[in-house]
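Reopening this one. Same input as before:
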Amino acid sequence: MAIDLPTANTNLRLDGLVPDVEAAMFEPIIEEIDELKHNRNAIVLAHNYMTPDIFHGVADLRGDSLELARLAASTSADVIVLAGVHFMAETAKIANPNKTVLIPHTQAGCSLAESITGADVRLLKERYPGVPVVTYVNTSAEVKAESDICCTSSNAVAIVESLDANRVIFLPDQYLGRWVATQTDVDVILWHGSCEVHERFTASELRDYRNLYPEIQIIAHPECPPEVLDEADFVGSTSGMINWVREESPAQVVMVTECSMSDNVAVESPDTEFLRPCNLCPHMKRITLEGIRDSLLYMRHEVNVDSSIALRAQRAVERMLAVT
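Same output, byte for byte:
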């Protein structure tokens, strides 16, 4: 059965989120996407780093990496369009081997995913025999297949401690791994990958914000370097930061993460002023409304994962979901 078309019109969905002239430009494209979704029984999953026209205009389900992994495993749609990066589309395909998964741009990659290969993991396991491998979801299916369990930034500490091991290999984000090591007594062996967005933030930049805005609250993603996290009032995952803003309702806040997330969170927090150090993810920004429309129109850029890799990667993802 096809999914229902949204009842709200485009102007209402984007009201106050983008300038009126942009909303008028987006409206016909969003209407095309709505019709294509209806005809193909398709659904759009959007990461929090998507621009507001996508996040609020066409996304059916939204979230961070963990939430998208859960949502991908439960959708009844025949076609999934992943408005995010390639590893997320692979995870959606792993969770839905019999569904069609599309990504609107083939070069929507990730510096973390590209920092490590399955061969690298095999060499690490040879070097540290018997040490369990915890792999961040920001990795390829091939890397997940070589891992014992996956994690996201929101559950990394819980995943590490769930293994009841004195030592773990944590891949591939060195900064997230260092932060996890401060939250647990488990010995953490690191890989030297990093997120090209989060590693650009600096401690001096955040101190400048405090000098200009003495009452400001700074919240940071654990993919940032340690000296940046030391300057933060709160450190948490994408979902953790969203919940913190919702619960604390600060007068002013800086979200030290990808720029578009502040745009999307601000919609739910009109009484909070968001100061935005605008570091954009170049890969996320390859995903556009036009790309989503064309992906559905031509059913192009289908994501497939070799069955032998998918089965092993699926076990790592399912083990993660069972813990959280």
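So the earlier flakiness isn't reproducible anymore. For the record, The longest helix spans residues 20-40.
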